Every structure is written in C-alpha cells, then in structure tokens.
Q: What sequence folds into this?
C-alpha cells in the first residue's frame, strides 16, 4: 500500500496523538491540529490524501470547516467523526460534502480501512468491467463470475460481494463497510449477518486456498 | 380501567343523590306533618265558630218559642251525620225528636259533647265530622254536626300541594346532590387522566386551573408544580446525559485506539482480545442507549426517502436469508407494492431488530412471514414467527429497556431491540404492536406507519 498523507483535526490532544501514532506505524504520514481554524488553514495550504475531521471543534465547528473547504473547491476526501448514537449527523455531514463518517469511539482497523478506501477512491482508478484474480474471473457487464472457467451460481448479493472483494485485493474491509457498500445500509446489526454471507461466498470460491481471510477484530481481506 | 373509574364516579354521585333524597324526604314529611296539624287546628276552630253561631240561633229560637219554634228552621235534607250540615233536637233520653239525624250517634254517650267523630275510618280522616251536643232548655239536647266535606276542594288542593312538594323536593335535592358530587368528580377525573398521560411520558401536559381556588384547584396547582420541577429535573438529566455521552466518547475513543494498537502489536494475546471485545460491547450498548434516547425524545432528524416496499423489504430479507437458512428457517415474503416515505436506515434498523428476534426464536424447519399491506394513507409491515410467542405478562413488558424474555437470556442482545424498533416507528408517526398467534404463529410484530 502506498503511503498516505493524512491531516487529523481533533481537539482532544491524546486521541489525535494516538491516531497519528497508529497511522505512522502503518507507514503513513500524519499531522494533527486541535482547532477548526488551524485545521482549515492547513487543509487549504497543503495537499493531503485524506482529512479526519471531528464534528465538534473549538474556534470553528467541523461542519463549518467542511463547508468552507468545499466552497473553495478543495475536494480532499474528508472522514467525519460524529458523536456516537447521533446517526443523523452522518446525513448532515454527507450533505455538507463529507466522503465518509465514523462514530466516535471507533476501532483503529475501521479508521485505517476507511481512510485507505477514501484515499484510493480519490486516486481515480480507471474503471474496469473485468477483474481477474488467480482462477477467478468476474465480468461486471454480464454479471457472471467464473472459477477455472466454470460459471459460479452466485446470488446477486454474493456476486456484488465478490466484485467488491476483487476490486479491493489485499485490503482490509470491515463488516460495516460491506453493509454500506453492498446493501446500502448504515446501521448496526446485532448479529453476524455479514459473516454468514461471506462464508456463503467462501463456499463458492474457496476450493483449497484461503482467498477471503478473516482479519481478527477488523473484517476481511481478499487475497488476489 | 376507565369503565371502573366512571362507575366509581357515578357511584359517588348516586350515593350523594340518595342521601340528599332521603334527607329531604324526611324534611318534607316533617314539614308536611306540621302543616297538616296547623290546618287541622284551623279547620276545627273554623267549624267551632260556625257551630257556636248556629247554636246561638237555635237556642234563641228555643228560648222564644220552645221546640215548636226550632222545628221550622231545622235543615231538612237527608244524610244524617254524614251530610255537610246536620242539626237535630233530642230529648234527655237521647231520642231524636226533630232534624236530620236518624238517631243518636252510635257510641256517643247521651249528654253534652264536643269532638270529632271518625265516620270514614283512618284513610278519609279529612272527611271527619265535628259533633256538638249541648243542653237546650231543661228537657232537650241540641245536636249540631258539621262535616269537613264543604272544604273538600281546598283540602284536596292543599293535600296535592303537599304531595307534590314531598315528591319534588327530594327529587330536586337528589339531582342537586348528584350534580354537586359529579362536578368535582369530573375535575378529579381530568386530573387522573392527566397523571396517567404523564406516566406514559407526556411530561409537557399541565392541569387546567380555575380562579376559584378550591381544594381540587389547589391539588391541580400542586400537581402542576410537581410536573414543572419533574420536567426541569428531566431536562437536567437529559443535558447531563448528553454531556456525559459527549465527554465519554473521547476518553473511550482514546482507550479503544490504544487497546487496538496494543492488540495489533500482540495479535496472539487472548487477554487483550477479550478486553477489546468487552470494550466494543460496552461502546455498542452505550451507543444503542444514546440513540434510543435521541429517537424517543424526537431529537433525531428523520431523513425520509421514497421507498418501494417490495424492493426495500426484499433487500432486507435478502440480508437475513442466509442467517435464517443456517437455522433451517425460511423467510416468506408477501409484500404489496406501495411507495412509502421513510428513513431507510432507521427503518432497516427497526426491521432488522425484529427479524433478528424472530430468527432467534424460530424453531428449526419453520417459517418467518414478512408481510406488508398498505391502505390509502398507512402501511403495516408484519413479521411473525412460529416460535413460542410471549406470555401475556411479557407482552406488556417487552418494550421495557433491558427486558429480555425468559427463553432469550442466553441469546445475544441487550433488550434494546424492540424499544428501539418502537421508538423508530413512533418517530415516523406510527407505532409498533405485539400480538400472539393464532397457531401456528408465535409472536407477531406489527410495524405501522403513515405512508406520507
């Protein structure tokens, strides 16, 4: 994975510090500031791959920072940190131009997976209609997936799931990301519904090798 | 419950009315008795006067011409004692010599007399006859009888008046008593209905107060005062809760990040993984509680979209289908296609809570039915399983926070799923209803919401 340059705008010095430390350990560059004005200034003056923006900030509110950035046509991907339990903040954030959101407190793996997805999305991969990985081939136009040339009898959502994995090989994908991307839901199921879907897909594509790896405490990784 | 309260109120009204009725009946009877006594005395004196006048006339005639002078002026009509006016002359042995008496009145000693004769028995006591006997000269008696019959019309009018008075006074008193008892009861009922609504969560309601400031008014004022301070306290708790949640999320986020960093460093440490899972569970519980609170208080903003019931619901069923199949449970979808306006994420959260419950309690090889029916302006989504259902007591408790049925103690979840689903239904202007059966169905959950 290519190294990312991330700006963290978070008023809690300790939390911001841990995020910076964790990102640096993953091989990224990270810079933290603790109020909205300084954050806005840095975001305007530099090219970051992504910005982590807290909703509540001193001097200038997170929403206001975001609105100002978008007004100046700065399209740096923004991951908004919202208050736990306040699900409607997500809608407000997205309306203001946020690219993703995460309810505080969040898991480190979730933050990393989402930041990587954001930076990757912004890097404008050329759109493909065919993906190949090992003995697997997937055609988005005909919505057909084959293993060793043999058509796989996938249900629509199983196909979508496989397509998502094949488009993001080697990357950690969390369960909530899958729920958002494949089903379009933003809520927290109490049971392991996603795991059941993934194991269905595994039964179709995993003959011998472990193509879809379970990453403990995070989600899944597809090995291309 | 409402029925029995109304019954109690009317019972109080009836009791007061009966008491007033009896009291005024006794009063009217005493008063009428007194009036009757007065009338009696008055009639007697009137008759006495008339008899005395007549006696004077006959005595004067006798004094002038003896028996021969009396006889022409004696009344001649038949009727004897019972006639309105009877006069006779008798000798000292009691033999009637002249007049319209047929004989000396039975049971009356021969001699001077002045008293009522009961000629009609008790019932017609008004038609009594006053008999007067006095000596006339040395060898005769003068007998004069006056009946009250001449005053019959007046007496009947008076009796009727007394009867009407005796009847209407208690009725009026009973009506007044009922009204007097009902009016405060109605205000008490209003207070009772207010406190019931407050108990169900309408803390902004207040009792109506009157200017007259009686005891019920004082009660209403003190209830209002209590509600004011309760609402203020709730507001403080809510603000404290918000502040607490806000203040907690950053330390929790720090804790979680450091723990995650440690767990990445020591991926095989079971203890660390366990702590991380416990922390995740605490955070999820706290988040669920905060979200439930926000939705219940209407602080969560709905983002309504137009959803097509069939697509939307089959998408949700599709999400849960593998989990159900693993348990040997089939989800049957019977959805009428209709457009609804709802928040897709909140609705999905509510329906997934209900579906997860249904899958948890469904026996192997059973069916969970998800149906949706729309009317012109409402939509009902029904999810029913073939599990054991809920006892009647549990049906009432199922919306209590943290309540979990006896047979789900071992299952995951915090007992917030149904309360959250109901809060979401209510936020959409609808409601959630739980029912049992009929066989083969166990619990039926009805999610109702307006379509617009």
A:
């Amino acid at each position: 994975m290519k190294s990312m340059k991330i700006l963290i705008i978070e008023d809690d010095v300790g939390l911001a510090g841990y995020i910076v430390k964790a990102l640096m350990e993953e091989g990224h560059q990270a810079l933290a500031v603790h109020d909205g004005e300084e954050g806005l200034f840095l975001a305007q003056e530099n090219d970051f791959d992504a910005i982590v923006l807290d909703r509540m900030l001193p001097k200038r509110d997170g929403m206001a920072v975001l609105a100002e950035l978008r007004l100046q046509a700065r399209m740096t991907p923004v991951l908004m940190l919202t208050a736990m339990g306040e699900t409607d903040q997500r809608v407000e954030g997205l309306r203001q131009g946020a690219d993703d959101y995460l309810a505080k407190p969040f898991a480190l793996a979730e933050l990393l997976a989402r930041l990587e997805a954001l930076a990757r999305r912004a890097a404008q991969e050329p759109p493909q209609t065919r993906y190949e990985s090992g003995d697997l081939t997937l055609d988005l136009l005909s919505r057909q997936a084959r293993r060793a040339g043999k058509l796989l009898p996938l249900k629509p959502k199983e196909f979508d799931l496989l397509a998502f994995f094949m488009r993001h090989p080697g990357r950690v994908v969390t369960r909530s990301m899958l729920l958002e991307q494949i089903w379009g839901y933003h809520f927290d199921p109490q049971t392991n519904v996603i795991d059941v879907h993934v194991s269905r897909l595994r039964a179709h594509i995993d003959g011998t090798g472990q193509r879809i790896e379970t990453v403990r405490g995070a989600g899944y990784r597809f090995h291309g | 419950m409402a029925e029995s309260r109304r019954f109690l109120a009317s019972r109080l009204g009836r009791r007061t009315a009966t008491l007033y009725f009896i009291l005024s009946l006794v009063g009217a009877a005493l008063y009428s008795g007194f009036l009757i006594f007065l009338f009696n005395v008055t009639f007697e004196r009137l008759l006495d006067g008339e008899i005395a006048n007549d006696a004077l006339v006959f005595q004067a005639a006798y004094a002038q011409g003896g028996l021969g002078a009396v006889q022409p002026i004696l009344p001649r009509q038949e009727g004897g004692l019972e006639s309105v006016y009877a006069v006779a002359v008798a000798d000292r042995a009691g033999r009637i010599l002249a007049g319209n008496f047929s004989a000396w009145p039975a049971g009356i000693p021969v001699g001077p007399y002045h008293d009522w004769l009961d000629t009609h028995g008790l019932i017609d006591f008004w038609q009594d006859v006053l008999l007067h006997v006095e000596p006339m000269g040395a060898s005769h008696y003068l007998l004069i009888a006056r009946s009250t019959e001449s005053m019959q019309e007046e007496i009947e009018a008076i009796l009727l008046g007394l009867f009407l008075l005796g009847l209407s006074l208690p009725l009026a008193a009973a009506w007044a008593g009922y009204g007097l008892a009902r009016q405060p009861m109605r205000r008490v009922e209003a207070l009772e209905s207010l406190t019931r609504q407050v108990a169900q969560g309408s803390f902004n309601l207040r009792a109506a107060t009157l200017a007259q400031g009686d005891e019920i008014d004082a009660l209403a004022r003190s209830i209002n005062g209590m509600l004011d301070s309760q609402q203020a306290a709730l507001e403080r708790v809510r603000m404290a809760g918000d502040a607490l949640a806000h203040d907690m999320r950053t330390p929790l986020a720090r804790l979680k990040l450091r723990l995650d960093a440690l767990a990445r460093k020591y991926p095989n440490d079971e203890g660390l993984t366990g702590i991380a899972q416990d922390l995740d569970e605490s955070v999820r519980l706290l988040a669920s509680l905060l979200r439930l609170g926000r939705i219940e208080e209407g602080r969560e903003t709905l983002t309504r979209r137009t959803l097509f019931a069939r697509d939307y619901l089959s998408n949700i069923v599709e999400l849960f289908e593998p989990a159900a199949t693993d348990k040997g449970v089939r989800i049957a979808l019977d959805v009428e296609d209709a457009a609804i306006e709802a928040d897709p994420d909140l609705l999905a959260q509510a329906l997934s809570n209900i579906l997860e419950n249904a899958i948890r309690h469904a026996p192997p090889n059973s069916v969970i039915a998800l149906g949706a029916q729309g009317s012109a302006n409402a939509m009902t989504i029904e999810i029913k399983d073939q599990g054991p259902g809920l006892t009647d007591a549990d049906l009432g408790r199922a919306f209590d926070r943290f309540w979990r049925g006896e047979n789900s103690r071992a299952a995951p979840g915090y007992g917030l799923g149904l309360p959250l689903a109901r809060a979401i239904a209510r936020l959409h202007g609808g409601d959630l209803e739980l029912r049992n059966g009929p066989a083969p169905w166990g619990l039926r959950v009805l999610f109702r919401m307006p379509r617009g």
